[in-house]
Amino acid sequence: MRPNQSRKVRNYAVAGSALAIAAAVAVGCGVTGTDTNRAGSSLTFDPLPSAPSGASAAPGSGVNPGALPPGQTAPVPSPPAPATMTVVVPPPSAAAKPQTTVPGTPAPAAPPKPAAGNGGGSGAPSGQGDGAPSGPASPTPAAQAQARSVTKPVLLPDGSVDCAKSKCVALTFSGGPGPVTRQFLQTLDAHGGKGTFFVTGAQVNLNPDIMTAIAGTGNEVANGTWTQPDMTTLSDADETAQLQQTNDAIRTSVGSTPTLFRPMGGHTSPSVVDAGKRLGLTQVLWDLDSMDYNYQADPDGLTQVLMGMKPGQIVMLHDTFVSSATALDRAMTALSDQGYAFVTVSQLLRTRAG
Questions:
Q1: Exposed site from 87, 209, 264, 300, fewest CB < 10 Å?
Q2: Where is composition skewed (Gly residues) in this entry (predicted)?
Q3: What is the number of domains present in the chain?
Q4: pLDDT at position 241, please?
Q5: Residues β-bridged to residue 196
Q6: Is the whole model's pTM more than 0.90, yes or no?
């Protein structure tokens, strides 16, 4: 081989190696595609835990939907462990009570004593509440008489529920208003219940008919901030603006000003609480976090979580998931038969204050 031909061969070999190395680097850096776990999703999840501070109700732990700060990426929640639950709802004439069956849980020898009506939840079932199903064991005559005595809420002269003498639970909804909100309103109405909707201000003007439906059916409209930021990262002026703009939108939409607010994800601080107070807003978090975003494909699992609610609790859900509406309907069917009443946060807080 002549010297010139030898040099050309060496040059081609070097160039080919360089191209191969560049291609490998590009693949390793992800230049050739998009992470499928992040592509095409309009809903992100805040990885920070709830931060109770100055709250009127202790929040549950866990993550909650909301916008991430710039530069942060959202982890993909692990799928929940498989759970099987059967809720049996008897006809009005039947004597049997709804039963909950969880694999691996032995039936108790006798019905348990009623549990206390307070305590925080973490999104997973925290135990059965007063009057909750106790398994296949046959109740004693005394237990049957006690069950019959709490099958209906006690009403006040004005027709509202007396939460001092009834098993009241406040169901709350964040993330809306939106198309799925209608399904939650239908579920509440079917069970004679009311809920509190912490609406996102930026979505209020986009869904005027939904807002009218919420307020027009006796449910409570509350302030869920304008864009659901982490309020603890904002200046005092921006905290106030998030709440004030939402107040203005709600007043324009339904003609009333809210008295309650909830910071996204439970991220709060004394400054956030004070921003609400300046506008006449009381901060409300929750006692039981359903973590319903983890159960979008498992309404039975979410029903199991909701069956763990106890009298006196504020329960956290999102009116953005169809599976949450399905699970809520099933849980309300069973719990209503046990004498539970579903009221607004303001009504429940009046009982707590008393």
A1: 209
A2: 117-132
A3: 1
A4: 98
A5: 172, 220
A6: no
